[in-house]
Write a structure and sequence with these properties.
Layout: E1 14-18, E2 25-26, E3 29-30, H1 34-48, E4 52-56, H2 73-83, E5 87-90, H3 96-103, E6 110-113, H4 127-138, E7 143-146, H5 157-165, E8 168-170, H6 172-185, E9 192-196, H7 201-211, E10 217-220, H8 225-231, H9 246-259, E11 262-264, E12 268-272, E13 281-285, E14 299-303, H10 305-317, E15 320-324, H11 337-348, E16 352-356, H12 358-366, E17 376-377, H13 382-388, H14 394-397
Parallel strand pairs: 1-4, 1-7, 4-6, 5-6, 7-8, 9-10, 9-15, 10-11, 15-16, 16-17
Antiparallel strand pairs: 2-3, 12-13, 12-14
Helix pairs in contact: 1-2, 4-5, 8-9, 10-11
The structure holds adenosine-5'-diphosphate (ADP) and magnesium ion.
Length: about 400
Amino acid sequence: MRTLNTLPVLAGKRVVLRCDLNVPLDGDRITDDGRILASVPTIKRLTDAGASVVVISHLGRPEGKPEAKYSLAPAAKRLGELLGQEVFFATDTIGSEASGAVKALAPGGVVVLENLRFNAGETSKDAAERTQFAKALAEFGDFFVSDGFGVVHRKQASVYELAELLPSAAGLLIEQEVAVLQKLTVDPVRPYVVVLGGSKVSDKLGVIDHLLPTVDKLLVGGGMVFTFLAALGHKVGSSLLEQDQIETCREYLKRASELGIEVVLPTDIVVASKFGADAEVEITAADAIEQTPFGASGLGLDIGPASAERFATEILAAKTIFWNGPMGVFEIDKFANGTRTVAKALSETDGFGVVGGGDSAAAVRILGFSDDQFGHISTGGGASLEFLEGKELPGLSILGLDK
Ligand code: ADP
Ligand code: MG
C-alpha cells in the first residue's frame, strides 16, 4: 500500500485529504470527537511539510442534497481547536466558495469543504457520475491522500475515483488501522477471542462466518443474543429477534462445535418491562426470559451480571481480542453494565485489545474510558468488519493494498 512517504516533495503543494469526520451530533454539539482527533496526525504531517490541505468528508446520510443538520461546520470548528490553527470552512463542496477558499490557501493552511454527500455524485451507483464529481474535487489538489478509514469499504467518488485521478497515498490513520487489522488476521497471538454484540445479527453474520475457523472463542452479547437463544429453542419474549436468521445461527453453533470452538452465550439476561430509562428490570436465566412478571412482553436489554463476569474472565485470559458491538443498550445506564464490564476487562487485559464499530467506540468513551486504555480503537465499523471478513476493500486496493 502506498503511504505518505511515497509522495514527492509536499512543500508548496496542495493536498486533497479525505478524512472521516462523521461524528455523532446532538444538535450542533459533537458527542464523540474521536474521529476528528484521529484525523489530526496526518493533517499535521502534511502542513508541517509545507503543504496546504483541503479536507473533505461526509457526515451522516443526506441524500445527495444539502441538509442543515448534516453540515460539517461543527466538525470543522472542532478540528480548528484540535489543530490549534485557523480552519476555514467552505459552505459548499465544489462550488464557488470552495474553489475561492482553496485558491486562497497559503502553505500550511487548512480548509474544510462542506459535506461530500450533499452532492449526488459522491455515492452514485453510476461510475461516470462519480468520476465527474471526483474530477471536480481533483481540481483542488496536486495530490490525494486517503485517510477516512471508516469509508474504505465503499466505492465512492472521494474514496475510489479520486484516488485514480491524482497521485495518491494512504494517510497515517489508514496505515495504522490496516496494520492493526493485519495483526488480527495474519497469525494472531493466541488465545484469540472475539466478542460480538450490537443490534443486528444479519450485520455480523459475515464476520462470524469468516472468523469462526480462526478464533479460539466467540463471545456473543447484545441484541444478537436472542436469535442465538432462539436457535437453542429458548423463548425470548419481546427481545430483538431475527426470525429468518435462526437457522443460520443454529448452523454456526453446529459448525463451531465441530471445529472445537467455544461459542460463549450469556447465561443470564437483564429483562425490562419496556424500552426506556423508567422500565422495571429483572435478571433472569437466559432460558427463562418469559418467566419474569413481564411474561412474553419482557425485553432483554443487557447481558446479566454473571455473563458479564464470565466474558470479562475470558477477555483477561486472552492474548488477542477483537470486540465489536455493545453488550446491551448502553445508552441507558440501567442496561450499560455488560458493556461497561467488557470494556473494563479489555482495558485491563495484558492481551492486545481492539475495539471496532462506531457505537462500540462511542460507548467506551461515553462510559468514561480513554482511548489509551485499549490496544486500539478503530474508527471504522463496517470497514473493520469487512476487512476481518476477508473482503477486498475498494478504498484500500486502489491505494495498492494486496489482499
Ligand atoms: P457498532 O456500531 O459498534 O458496530 P451496532 O451498530 O451493531 O454496533 O449496535 C449498537 C446498538 O446496539 C446500540 O445502539 C445498542 O443500544 C444496541 N443494542 C445492544 N444490545 C441490544 C439489545 N439487547 N436490544 C436492543 N438493542 C441493543
Ligand atoms: Mg452502529
